[in-house]
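Run folding on both entries below.
>entry_1
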Amino acid sequence: MNSSTLRRCLTGALVAGLFPVVFNAVAQEAPAAQEKGPAAADAMLHALTVEYPTPYRAMSAEEVKTVLDRVYTYLERTTPAELIHKSDGTPITNLTTADPDAVFKPGDFRLTSYEWGVTYLGMLAAGAATGDARYTDYTIKRHQLLADLTKLYNPVVQADLKNSHAPHKSFLNPHALDDAGALCHSFLKAKLGGSKVDYTQMIGICGNFVTKKEYRLPDGTFARGGADGNGGFKARPLKNTVWLDDMFMGVPTIAYLGAVNGDSKHFDDAARQVLQFSKRMFNPQLGIYMHGYVEGQADHPEMHWARANGWAVMSMVEVLEVLPKNHKMRDAIVKQLRAHIKGLSTYQTRDGFWHQLIDRPDTYQETSATAIYTYAIARAVNRGYVEAQAYGPMANLAWNATASKVLANGQIEGICVGTGMAFDPAFYSYRPTSVKAAHGYGPALLAGAEIIEMNKKFKFGLNDSGLMYQGLR
């Protein structure tokens, strides 16, 4: 072996030792230089170690579960499925009478909020993805408590809607989709998944509200408005305002009602709503949705709030999960989903997040929206709606960004608090964030669960230093 060949062999061995991940990747690497002789000083600069703020790789299932376990442990500890006497704080264990003094034992989050409907969905998904029954049991235990309370208190509430008391009165006498829709979605999904809880009465209450009582525009699209009971009209914030949030708060529930009771009118209703929301609120040039739309208003200042876009993309993947394969509007929804995911892909930040106002990089990087996008994009990859080659790496980066915000104690940072609707950027840009904002916990669980499923099915690794699809497992 001459000295030049020996030098090249030693150089190759040294580089392989310094950069084992690059050289062990299954996919093809950059071709070796064809020139002979001593290597130039810049020959291996492309393989220098890069310090990424967000880990740049696909996490293993075990690593993802470690993050999810922290979230689970925190929520199990701080959201007790227990009742106490409001007057003295003593526990209530006998659910045989509708005690007007009964309340849920206080925790960090409410068991009957729409955010917790999403959390119940996330726990079910995490249980299925990890095989850890603790996640599933979290949801079923609280569903069972709500079912028991509904049986006990519903007759009392219906007899006196104004003056009666129940620990979950907002569910028994809902006034908005937020009171019923996401919770109902979780009941329906658990029922389809084989839960032994008797959901009949609860689904009757929330399903009836979502399908028959919530206000709609003349074409059937959910809106916020209607008579105020005093001869006037509700304005939230203006008459006949369509909130993009409601594309998730009610539409998947309708589709899942169709899956449970077999009534095709629910599939038709849900599919129409997805397309009608999109016709009004999706900007095809930008590939993202506006947050609010006022029916009859000439101009609609477009505030592209991140979490609302999350509710939209999540709504589509959830509706498609149960919409029959031969449904006449299914292809249109898949097309709309692809357009939205393609649009979102152009706004992901270099650290894997999306901004509070998606197209305004001067706003902060927001965690709950990033988690929802992670879930929806990974689900779309897993179901074949979009290509794993194009969107799998993005979903992995988004999960790593989300995971970076999960603290050691299981709390999650960077979650925008509850947010109304406005037509100016200041309102959204300065919304506070808090670890006590419930909106990010369910999405984080859903995101981690779907990433586990995606990375079980597809392999992603480094190719020429870039995270790329490397085929089926």
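>entry_2
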Amino acid sequence: MTISSFRSFTLAILVAILVWSSATHNSCNATRSGRHWRKNRSTSTTLSKKKSGNNHHNGGGGKSKSKSSSHKAPPASAPAPPEHDDGGVPAAANTYNVLNFGAKGDGIADDTKAFEGAWAVACKVKGSKIIVPSPYKFLLGPITFSGPYCQPNIVFQVDGTIIAPSSFKPYGSGLFQWILFTKLVGLTIQGGGTIDGSGSIWWKSTPFDDPLDDELKLIIPINGTTGKKILHSSITDSLGGIMPSIKPTAVRFYGSFDVTVTGITIQNSPQCHLKFDNCVGVSVYNFKVSSPGDSPNTDGIHLQNSKDVLIHTTDLSCGDDCVSIQTGCSNIYIHNVNCGPGHGISIGSLGKDNTKACVSNVTVRDVMMTNTMNGVRIKTWQGGSGSVKGIMFSNIQVSEVQLPIVIDQFYCDKSTCKNQSSAVALSGISYERIRGTYTVKPVHFACSDNMPCTDVNLNGINLKPVQERYHMYDPFCWKTFGELLSPAVPPVECLQIGKPSSSHVQADHDSC
């Protein structure tokens, strides 16, 4: 073999080796690629089987039917858009928008069923949130959000407007409230929205025997009339039908614990705007009540049989007491409140129809009263029993208030009341730094003959008259014992220093 032939043979062998090596390498790659593809296909098939199984269980049984014949499945790279609460913000877990339960939010359609549906779901989830979005307006009939089997810490986020029916018909023969929250724990109502009670139809149809504030008897206009005449229209309204015998409170909490109301406005209630009954642990702040000053019996916040209550940083404008504290209340702290128009902040009325009333440990401080009938007041009926004790009114600024300081143990919201000897016992009541202007009488203490008021202490009282359209009077005291801790302006010389020489002692069953 020549050298040239040998070189050609060697080169042919090398080329053959290279070709064989390349084929072997591609075969390995193809095999790995094939395994990788088969593995993905197996995973996809498994997931498909799991989804099919889930659909079967959620559907309640039966054979699963493919929907590919009528609907094309979206591509894997394009998932369905997330559900939204409001304003394009994706819905968080455990958040339930009433719009997703069929609410229209046009102020015309009845959205009661949608709210009930949202509540039924949220009730089962701890820390859930119900969204009432802005700028929608939701018409709601009488409704109850009820426990006691709901999970705790549910939040009502009210950013839109909730309105009551503008007729009497949905209330039947009468209901105590329009919106009721009962037997719940840790419930919060928050947001910047409004709850509107559509109260004007109720105010126009006020019956002749509706209770009137008894302090009207002390306010005598200079023109000789006996107070502001209140005009009553027929009980039957052409639009609303026949008015029920009971006027509803706008929002009521009953038998609940650790309740918070913040940020919202309640306005135009038929009667009380916000009521807490048999509740423990209540917090109300950054809250507003708005109704005309002549809307009858429209208390701002009403407390009854409730304990450990904090109310602060609120603006309360209404036609009755800005805050009313009834029997069974203790550990009440109210501060930084603006009140007016309205009838001031009141404890009572207590002891009506010979009932027993117990109120203790109430502090009201840092309050501004503007153009109200009363400032700070305690009112009880003759014939009652029980006690009011441990009360502090401090740093109250009054501006053109008719009666800044009132104790009235002869309260009567009817034309006549029976004279009775028993009374709710009042003791341990302090007034400090009550300052500003009055238009009728600076101090009115009318205590029971048989159960005088004791330990009534005044300190830093400075009230100046502003002549308006009413007769003006000097301070008045009857059966009131206590101490003047500093000179008062005007002088309250009628306060009897010390304790009564003798007084009626309540029987054990009458005391708290």
